[in-house]
Structure formats: structure tokens, C-alpha cells
Amino acid sequence: MADANVVDLDARRKRAEAYDKRLRELVDLIADFRSDLEGAAFNLALAGPWREWDESVPAGTVITLSWQALGDTGDANLDAVARIERVVALALAQLVR
Asked: Do residues 41 and 82 lie in contact, with contact meaning Cβ atoms separated by under 8 Å?
């Protein structure tokens, strides 16, 4: 008969390690989603409100992309995507790693 006062520390450690591993996987998944979201939003901006600009700049031009710039295009869809990104960024910052 097992002693009710005995705590299986090995099992507890294994559960904690499994939890930590799955949390890291979740954080990585969300970070990848955020990166994909940024690329997709940039491509949407280039196809819409930034189309004329995109057609006028030489190939290979390097720019600094910001979510503020994407959210300031006046395009309702990009505004919505920028709001999604803010929620995702907040969630990533709040997840305990």
C-alpha cells in the first residue's frame, strides 16, 4: 500500500518538464504565426494601398517595416490585421517561459 504522505518527485518533475516543453512549442508556434502575419500583411499592403509606391521603387530597395505603418494605411483590412498583431504580441509577452 502506498504511503499517503509520499510525494513522487520524479513524476512531478516529468510533468513539469512536459508542460515546459509544450509551452515552448506553443510560444514558437505563436511567434511563427506572428512572423507569417507580418509578411502577409506587407504583401497585402503592396497589392493595395502601397501598390503605386511598390511599382515606383527600384528592385532590391530595403525598407524598415513597422506595424504602425501597416496600420496607418487607411485600409480597413490592414487595420484589422494590425489589431490582431497587437493582441498576438501582448499574448507572447505575457506567456511565462
From this structure: yes
